[in-house]
Amino acid sequence: MITADRIFSITTSEQFEQIVMEVFRFQAEHCAVYAQYLSLVGVDIKKVQSIEQIPFLPIELFKSHEVYSATTEPQIVFTSSATTGMTPSRHLVADLAIYERDFIDSFRLFYGDIEQWSVYGLLPNYLQRQGSSLVYMVDRLIKRCGSGGFYLDNYEQLLADIAVDSKPKILLGVTYALLDLAEKYCPKLENTIVMETGGMKGYRKEMPKSELHRVLCQAFGVDRIHSEYGMAELLSQGYSVGQGLFAAPPWMKVLVRDINDPFRIVGTARRGAINIIDLGNLYSCSFIATQDLGVVNNDGTFRIEGRVTDADIRGCNLLVQ
């Protein structure tokens, strides 16, 4: 039986592969959208015997279909941010306890117990952006650590509160807000990790990560910028402690597919489109073909290097039309 305890207790590649195959069979039977996709691409579920044979669901289908494997009503629906005229993705979440355990356990792996930290969010608060999985996560982290808060557009209060906070601090924000803070105040932050979650959200012109991190390091007086890698369609997160090199928790794995052949995994050290296995997505779909570009290293760490520009890559839009 697949349980959250089994998923979040994974420590070996053998355990991961065993649970992946169990989750695949479960979702191939219970997730109607995934089952339909497998049928359309001609996959015989019984013949899938390894991770390499598992087809990944195009992430665009979260915009047009309900990707859901549970029989109960969802407890919450997370939505992606979308500019005017765009359709947001919708991620139906059957069990919020799984999501909360996911991000708490992931945070602990990279940074230790959340109670030891203060978390300051340069993000809209939960009432302003109720459908955001990121805002939900940060809201719960703030409540768990008991210090910090949301400070979007309230830079002076943010800096005043950080200055009198003796705990180690994480300043986590969307890219454009961190740049605004850096340019307007250029504050030198002590005992503080600066973490960007990516995205200008249309507020500013996109810039290379290396340049972004150089500007932020200089403004905040830190030697590196941390990053969080997540999205509405995933319940797990990867983290980078600097230099844009991400690692994932043991229940999440990143693979690279051929940009022109969505069913071919190209292996390590080669650039391509990102596929993600996220076992936290137990009751939606754990096998997601994203529109990110990147490279995976031999040790499983990965870099994100942009976005796929052509959304109609062959084989990836069978259910979108």
List the keywords:
single chain, 321 residues, alpha/beta, Rossmann fold, 6-stranded mixed sheet, 9 helices
Order of strands, widest sheet: 5-4-6-7-8-9-10
**Low-confidence parts lasting 5 or more residues at pLDDT below 50?**
311-321
Sheet/helix structural class: alpha/beta
What would you give as the CATH superfamily of the largest domain?
ANL, N-terminal domain
Count of spatially separate domains = 2
Rg, Cα atoms, Å: 20 Å
Description:
- This protein has two domains: 4-97 and 245-307, ANL, N-terminal domain (Rossmann fold), CATH 3.40.50.12780; 113-232, Rossmann fold (3-Layer(aba) Sandwich).
- Helices cover 30% and strands 22% of the residues.
- The protein is built from nine helices and 15 strands.
- A seven-stranded mixed β-sheet has the order 5-4-6-7-8-9-10, sandwiched between helices.
- α2 (13-30) packs across α3 (32-40) and α8 (175-185) crosses α9.
- It is globular, with a radius of gyration of 20 Å.
Q: What's the layout of helices and strands?
A:
Layout: H1 4-7, H2 13-30, H3 32-40, E1 57-58, H4 61-64, E2 76-79, E3 90-93, H5 96-111, E4 118-122, H6 133-145, E5 148-150, H7 155-163, E6 169-173, H8 175-185, E7 192-196, H9 209-220, E8 226-229, E9 238-240, E10 246-247, E11 252-258, E12 261-265, E13 272-278, E14 287-296, E15 302-307
Parallel strand pairs: 1-14, 4-5, 4-6, 6-7, 7-8
Antiparallel strand pairs: 2-3, 8-9, 9-10, 11-12, 11-13, 13-14, 14-15
Helix pairs in contact: 2-3, 8-9
